[in-house]
Amino acid sequence: MPPKVRDLVADLEKVGFVNRGGKGSHRNFVHPKGQKPVTISGKLGDDAKHYQVRAVRLALEELKK
Q: What is the pTM of this model?
């Protein structure tokens, strides 16, 4: 079962990403040390898409470098 969008948002915020807003159901998260923003779309209760999970995982790995 895929994680919920709220889980991805919580994971990003836990390590210091900040939601800089977006249009509609899109949220753009940026980190001061990150190279590029991570965009998550959908309502908080929706199942996350595979590409959203991958984008969050890659962003978190990038910060560990």
A: 0.92
